[in-house]
C-alpha cells in the first residue's frame, strides 16, 4: 500500500491550488482540509489498540469538527470499515477515514492538504511513520497579502510575517530532522505557476506515481472538490494556472506594509531567493519592528 501524502505550508501559500492539481491524478484523492488529525492523536494516543467503545468516542469526537463533515462520508459505511479491523491502532482508524473518502472517489490512494500541519510534523510522523510531506513555500510578502485579504483575521503585516517565519522555519526544521529527503520535499509556489509540468513531474517522482496530464487540467472539475462555503476564497485556484498572483505584493501591498514584513522575515526571504525591496524607510521601520521583537 502506498504511503499517505500531506501537503503543508504557511497560510496563504497556494496549498489549495497544489491540492487540486494532485487530486486530479487518477490514483490520488485529497479531501478538503481536515484539521482533526493531530487532535485525534492527542486525544486517543494512549487508547491503543482501540476498543469498540474507543471507536465510538473517536467518531463522536470527529463529528465535532466542521471539516470532518466536508468529507461527506457515510457514517454506517465508516463504522463497518472500522468494525472489520482487528485490534486497530489509531493509524488504521484515521487512515480508514481517508480510505473511505478515496474509495468513494474511485481512487486507491489518499492524501491530505491542511496547511497548519506544517507545525504538526512530529504528530504526523508518529501516526504515519511512512508518510510523505510536501512543504509548499511562497514569498512571505505574497503569503502575508493573502492572509490580510481574508476574513479570518484580523491580521497585521507584523503578525502575518511572524506567522510565515514560524511556519516555514518549523516545517523545514522538522521535515529535515524527522523525515529526511526521502519523505520530505520542499517546493515553491513560483514553480507551481511558472512551470507546473516540471514541478508535478518532480512531485510524482517523489511520491512514486506516474505523471498524468490530467493534473494540468485540474480546473475543469476543481469547484466540485471545494466546500461550497469556501469557494469564494479559492476562486483563483479553480482557474487555469497563471503567474498573475506571483509577486502580487509588488502591485497591491503598501510600501510600509512591505517594509514591516521584510523587517520580520527578511533573512528568511533572502535565504529562499526572494530579493528585498529597498527604500530609505527600511532602516527606521526595521528598527521599530526590532523593538517589538
SS strand fraction: 5-15%
Query: Using only CA atoms, what is the Rg?
Result: 20 Å
What is the N-to-C succession of helices and strands? EHEHHHHHEHEHHEHHHHH
Number of helices: 14
Largest sheet: 5 strands, parallel
Shape: globular
Secondary-structure-derived class: alpha/beta
- Span between termini: 47 Å
The helix fraction, in percent, is 40-55%
Mean pLDDT value: 91
Give the beta-strand count: 5
> Unreliable runs, pLDDT <50, ≥5 residues?
none
Strand order of the largest sheet: 2-3-1-4-5
Oligomer: single chain
Question: How does this model look, in words?
Answer:
With about 290 residues, the protein is an alpha/beta fold. Helices cover about 50% and strands about 10% of the residues. The chain has helices spanning about 15-25, 35-45, 50-60, 65-70, 75-85, 90-105, 120-125, 140-150, 155-180, 190-195, 195-205, 250, 255-270, 280-290, and strands spanning about 5-10, 30, 110-115, 130-135, 185-190. It has a five-stranded parallel beta sheet, sandwiched between helices.
List keywords for this structure.
14 helices; 5-stranded parallel beta sheet; alpha/beta; 49% helix; single chain; 293 residues
Provide a short characterization of the protein structure.
49% of the residues lie in helices and 8% in strands. The protein has helices at residues 15-23, 37-44, 52-62, 66-69, 75-83, 90-104, 121-127, 140-148, 157-179, 189-194, 196-207, 249-252, 255-271, 282-292; strands at residues 5-9, 28-29, 109-113, 132-137, 184-188. The protein is globular and about 65 Å long.
Amino acid at each position: 500500500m502506498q504511503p499517505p501524502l500531506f501537503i503543508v505550508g504557511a497560510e496563504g501559500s497556494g496549498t489549495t491550488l497544489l491540492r487540486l492539481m494532485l487530486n486530479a491524478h487518477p490514483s490520488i484523492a485529497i479531501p478538503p482540509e481536515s484539521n482533526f488529525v493531530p487532535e485525534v492523536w492527542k486525544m486517543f494516543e494512549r487508547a491503543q489498540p482501540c476498543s469498540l467503545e474507543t471507536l465510538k468516542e473517536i467518531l463522536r469526537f470527529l463529528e465535532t469538527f466542521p471539516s470532518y463533515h466536508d468529507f461527506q462520508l457515510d457514517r454506517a459505511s465508516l463504522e463497518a470499515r472500522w468494525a472489520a479491523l482487528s485490534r486497530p491502532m489509531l493509524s488504521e482508524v484515521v487512515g480508514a477515514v481517508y480510505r473511505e473518502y478515496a474509495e468513494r472517489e474511485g481512487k486507491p490512494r489518499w492524501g491530505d492538504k491542511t496547511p497548519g500541519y506544517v507545525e504538526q510534523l512530529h504528530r504526523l510522523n508518529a501516526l504515519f511513520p511512512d508518510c510523505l510531506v510536501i512543504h509548499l513555500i511562497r514569498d512571505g510578502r505574497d503569503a502575508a497579502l493573502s492572509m490580510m485579504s481574508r476574513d479570518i483575521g484580523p491580521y497585521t503585516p507584523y503578525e502575518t510575517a511572524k506567522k510565515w517565519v514560524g511556519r516555514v522555519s518549523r516545517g523545514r526544521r522538522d521535515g529535515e530532522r524527522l523525515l529526511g529527503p526521502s519523505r520530505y520535499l520542499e517546493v515553491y509556489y513560483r514553480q507551481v505557476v511558472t512551470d507546473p509540468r516540471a514541478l508535478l513531474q518532480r512531485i510524482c517522482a517523489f511520491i512514486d506515481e506516474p505523471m498524468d496530464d490530467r493534473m494540468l487540467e485540474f480546473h475543469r472539475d476543481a469547484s466540485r472538490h471545494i466546500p461550497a462555503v469556501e469557494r469564494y476564497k479559492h476562486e483563483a485556484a479553480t482557474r487555469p494556472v497563471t503567474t498573475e498572483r506571483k509577486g502580487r505584493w509588488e502591485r497591491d501591498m503598501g510600501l510600509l506594509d512591505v517594509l514591516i514584513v521584510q523587517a520580520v522575515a527578511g533573512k528568511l526571504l533572502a535565504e529562499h531567493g526572494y530579493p528585498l525591496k529597498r527604500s530609505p524607510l527600511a532602516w527606521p521601520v526595521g528598527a521599530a519592528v526590532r523593538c517589538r521583537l
